[in-house]
Specification:
- The complex is a heterodimer of chains A (about 10) and B (about 210).
- With about 10 residues, chain A is low in regular secondary structure.
- Chain A has no helix or strand.
- The termini of chain A are far apart.
- In chain A, about 30% of the residues are buried.
- With about 210 residues, chain B is mostly helical.
- Chain B has one domain (about 5-200).
- Chain B contains nine helices and no strands.
- In chain B, helix 3 (about 35-45) runs antiparallel to helix 6, helix 5 crosses helix 6 and helix 6 runs parallel beside helix 9.
- The termini of chain B are far apart.
């Protein structure tokens, strides 16, 4: 899982 | 999720809601850069296209929808409902000077060369400079009767809390998004300028106009 590409931030 | 997110996340929409209420109450959007608000609407539109492809949490989805709704409501009030009070003559920043280079850079520097990812990157870069038309307008007119201390406070607060959030995530989750951090840093610097302009031009102007 690429943590960066999930974009969980707003 | 660390505490800096549930406090930082609502700060930007809070700033926008304050702006919305101010426009609504005074029936005027004088002093507000419609271009900056238009850019923010574009920012949230291009950033949250992931809503259609991935689900993170109910919190995440609802916050994104709130961001989008608030930014479009502001644009609607400025360009439609209270168009007559919009100070277009002073809102002369050329947005293509921002959108075109930002678009170019997001093609060149991104995490992944895919349409959604490039649009996300575009939105991150654009958000960092979206306040420039507003800055330009304040520096020209030296007045922002409708940009309140509160709008400014919440915008700066959201930046500050996100910076702490990134430091937190770097140390405790090993999470580090260089693009978001650099763009966030640039944005913070511009907001410091916004704050400086506010102190020197706006507050000074207010002081001078006070009845003796």
């Amino acid at each position: 899982k690429n943590a960066v590409l999930t974009h969980d931030e707003l | 999720m660390n505490i800096f997110r549930p406090t930082g996340d609502p700060s930007h929409p809070a700033a926008i809601v304050i702006l919305l209420l101010k426009i609504w109450k005074t029936r005027s959007c004088a002093g507000i850069s419609g271009k900056s608000q238009l850019l923010f609407a574009l920012v949230f539109t291009t950033r949250y296209l992931g809503l259609f492809t991935s689900f993170i949490s109910l919190y995440n989805t609802s916050m994104k929808l709130i961001y989008i709704a608030c930014s479009y409501a502001t644009v609607y009030l400025i360009y439609m409902k209270f168009k007559a009070t919009y100070d277009g003559n002073h809102d002369t920043f050329r947005v293509e000077f921002l959108v075109v280079p930002v678009g170019g850079v997001s093609f060149l520097v991104n995490h992944d060369f895919s349409p959604l990812e490039i649009l996300w990157t575009f939105s991150i870069y654009l958000e960092s400079v979206a306040i420039l038309p507003q800055l330009f307008m304040i520096s020209k007119t030296g007045e922002t009767e409708t940009i309140t201390n509160h709008y400014l406070f919440f915008l700066c607060l959201s930046r500050a809390l996100y910076l702490v959030n990134w430091i937190w995530r770097f140390y405790f989750e090993g999470f580090f998004d260089l693009i978001a951090v650099v763009a966030g840093g640039v944005q913070t610097i511009l907001y410091c300028d916004f704050f400086y302009l506010h102190l020197t031009k706006v507050l000074k102007g207010k002081k001078l106009s006070l009845p003796a």
